[in-house]
Amino acid sequence: MRKNKNARIMSGILMVLFSGLFLLIAGRFLYIQATGEIDGVSLEKMAKENRTASHTLDAERGKIYDRNGMTLAYDRPAYRMQAIVDDSRTQNEDNPHHVQNPGKTAGKLAPILDADKSYLLQELKKGIKEDRFQVEFGTAGKDLSQETKEKIEKLDLPGITFKEEPIRYYPNGKFASHIIGFARKDDKTFNGVTGIEQQMNDKLTGKDGSISYEHDFYNTKLLHPNEVVQPAEDGNNIHLTIDQKIQTLLEDAMTQMDKKYDPESMTATVMDPKTGEILAMSNRPSYDPNNPADVENWYNDAIATPFEPGSTMKMFTWSAAIEEGVYQGDEWFKSGTYKVSDRVTPIRDHNGGEGWGSITYDEGFTRSSNVAAAKLLWEKIGTEKFLDYWKAFDFDSKTGIDLPGEKTGKLVYNYPRDKIVTAFGQASTVTPIQQMKAASAFANGGKMVKPYVISKPSDGSSGDKADDKKANVVSKPISKDTSHKMLNLMQSVVSSENGTGKEYRLKEYNVVGKTGTSQLYKNGTLLRGHGNSRFSFLGMAPKDDPQLMVYVSVEQPDIARDETGSAPVSFIFKNVMRSSLHYLDIDPDKKTTKEIEPVKLPQIMNRKTGAVKDALADTGLNVSVIGSGNQIKQASAVKGDKLVPGDRIILVTNEPKMPDIAGWSLRDISELADLLDLDFEPMGHGYVVKQSIAEGQDLTKGDYLGVELKPPDESPAEKNDDASSSP
């Protein structure tokens, strides 16, 4: 009885417990059914999330175009290779979906990826050992092209898969790399690192979209998937002022000179001086933005590397003097050496301080006389007024060009010597783009324009041509009259036999410009020796209405002893300028050429010296009278010969005496020696700097005449201890 009673009690307790548990569970189910939540988590939401797939829709980074719609940068599909090493991926041994034979797989992939087989095998074995699902192969398996992907797919290797991901691609390689720059992918987003890619990163960068849909257990989209799409917003396209054809001309010319002369550096820019549009810009060393590894020079030297410009600065010294009304081009001065005071080191002309005797200031510009520049600043303009023009030409500020990394030069203007040498491009520094901006005033009737490279951003995807030309006039540092006078002076540098820019002449176009040679220092010490300078030229054409401006500088070219530093500079300038003018359909300025009528010589023998000299000088000929006699006995040309204004004609009188032949060309001296039957011996190359027969000495048949010649822009460091700027 007692046992049955205990059994009934225990049975009752168990029934109560089970009933309570049942009610609790049933209540929980009822609660869940009624609320649809567990611990505050919505079951409906959880189910939807588990059966909903979401994917990012990548936005395309904006393209970069040249002025004519040629693509310079765009996103290109690329592939990342993955190797699945987890055997759970394979459901059927006859159709494997994982790497079964690591050695065979590595061996077949290595030659296509140009990778080491042992490295690939090591990565595969490491993934298997660490029980990973898949492995990748670093840079060897990234950024694969469509062609490479298809080659690997033809191998039919189990477990090898690909993931598509875009790369930023630059179809022209090193082409304008310092302007375009490059973008690097951080996680999933491209970010501009240099150039336009950096400058316009916000506009180029798009906004990713997304897509979501519901799927079943096997990840198959449902019949009614409740698909939600948020479209991606592609980045804006950017149109540049760069012209692909002119840029290619520039790149090719610079590459040739880089190979031939192996310079330390080069920079060149082509600009429309009317608008400030940069049509081409390049530097050496350069780099390929598709593979920016081991880059020697990140800087865009045209805008970011200030240096002493040398004699190209004389353009602005002469224009300041003209604008101030203190310039008389036909005024004479003594060239060679100029001493301000005992406390200031004398200024020397670039031919060792010998100069060319008494010459006019116009000829001083043509010959690139440092003495002329120094006298203009110190005696005519005044140091404070010259400083005003330095600022008026904006040499104290950045140009504002729409490229990152621009720097401005430094004015060194504390002591008299600093102020004087600034007039011919020493001590103070500027950038090439600052000089081009300032020189645009000569092409625009005194108006100075701001240089720029971005034509327009656009929301569309087309590569339409850039907008019409727009000039941003920033100031007017000089008058229209001054600008015209400067173009005439700059033409003489190139067209005159005495000009330092003879090598920059073009047959079809009249070129105006100015040469420059800059001193170089290393660890504070002036570099000496042939070629240890920075040689430059800033030129425009056609003369009367300049359509193109080209600036070229070459630092430390490996030139031969008989070559000048202008050899690589002139090659780049002439090839780019001539070809670009033709490409742009700029008519040759033949009108100017036709206006230069040849001079037909009259009878000059046995006539009065003074009358002949005056008559020939009036025709524009460069008349050199030999001796003090009153009658012409010999001449380098005879009656009926045709000469071009500017040509030298030598007149020998009945009392011949040795003239000062400093600056004469080899051809002129040879003619003189032939006329007087002298024993002539030239030494060197270029123009006369020394002569064995003193000026004024009587000349007789058979006299020995030895002359030393040097190039017009030879490094000043070779000529005297107090080096001064070359032409």
Task: Provide a quick synopsis of the model.
This protein has 727 residues and is of the alpha+beta class.
What does this structure look like?
There is one protein chain. The protein is α+β, with helices and mostly antiparallel strands. It has four domains: 41 residues; 164 residues, Penicillin-binding protein 2a (Domain 2) (Alpha-Beta Complex); 335 residues, DD-peptidase/beta-lactamase superfamily (Beta-lactamase, 3-Layer(aba) Sandwich), CATH 3.40.710.10; 122 residues, Trypsin Inhibitor V, Chain A (2-Layer Sandwich), CATH 3.30.10.20. It contains 21 helices and 34 strands. Strands 4, 5, 6, 7, 12 and 20 form a six-stranded mixed β-sheet that branches. It has a five-stranded antiparallel β-sheet with strand order 14-13-26-25-22, sandwiched between helices. A three-stranded antiparallel β-sheet has the order 3-10-11. β25 and β26 form a beta hairpin. It comes from Lentibacillus kimchii. It is found in: Membrane.
Largest sheet: 6 strands, mixed
CATH class categorisation of the largest domain: Alpha Beta
| Number of E-type strands | 34
Proper CATH architecture of the largest domain? 3-Layer(aba) Sandwich
Number of domains: 4
SSE-based structural type: alpha+beta
Radius of gyration: 39 Å
| Helix content estimate | 25-40%
- The third-level CATH topology of the largest domain is Beta-lactamase
**pLDDT averaged residue by residue:** 85
Helix tally equals 21
CATH superfamily of the largest domain: DD-peptidase/beta-lactamase superfamily
Q: What is the overall silhouette?
A: elongated
Low-pLDDT parts are 713-725
